[in-house]
Amino acid sequence: MTEMIDGHQVRDPHSLRVETEDQLRQAAAEVHRRVGDQYEEQQVQAAVREAYDEIHDQAKVESFLPILVARSAEQKLAER
């Protein structure tokens, strides 16, 4: 959700949090689909959160963020 303040479009911080959580759920679902039988859900969630924390600031296209996070999380799990 956005609103106009002084002629600028401003996103509602609450909607940003919701979008982030949706992205993390998408990434975790993808990782679980690929390797879920090898790792516990908490391990997958932790790897996804860690990958997101490392990647999100550099992401240029947010729509690709879930798949990039999923790939990074999967690599992290494989390295452990």
For the biggest sheet, the summary is:
2 strands, antiparallel
* Radius of gyration based on Cα positions: 15 Å
The secondary-structure element order is EEHHH
Global outline: elongated
What share of the residues does DSSP label as strand, in percent? 5-15%
What is the share of helical residues?
A: 55-70%
Number of helical segments? 3
Overall pLDDT level: 82
**Low-confidence sequence ranges:** none
Given the helix and strand composition, which structural class is it?
mainly alpha
Number of strands: 2
The strands making up the biggest β-sheet line up spatially as 1-2
N-end to C-end Cα span: 39 Å
**Integer count of domains:** 1
Explain the layout of strands and helices.
Elements: E1 2-5, E2 8-11, H1 13-35, H2 41-55, H3 65-79
Antiparallel strand pairs: 1-2
Helix pairs in contact: 1-2, 1-3, 2-3
Explained architecture:
The protein is mainly α. The chain has one domain (12-79). Helices cover 66% and strands 10% of the residues. It has 3 helices and 2 strands, in the order ββααα. The chain has helices at 13-35, 41-55, 65-79, and strands at 2-5, 8-11. A two-stranded antiparallel ribbon has the order 1-2. Strand 1 (2-5) and strand 2 (8-11) form a beta hairpin. Helix 1 packs across helix 3 and helix 2 crosses helix 3. The longest helix has 23 residues, at 13-35. The radius of gyration is 15 Å and the shape is elongated. The model has no long low-confidence stretch (mean pLDDT 82).
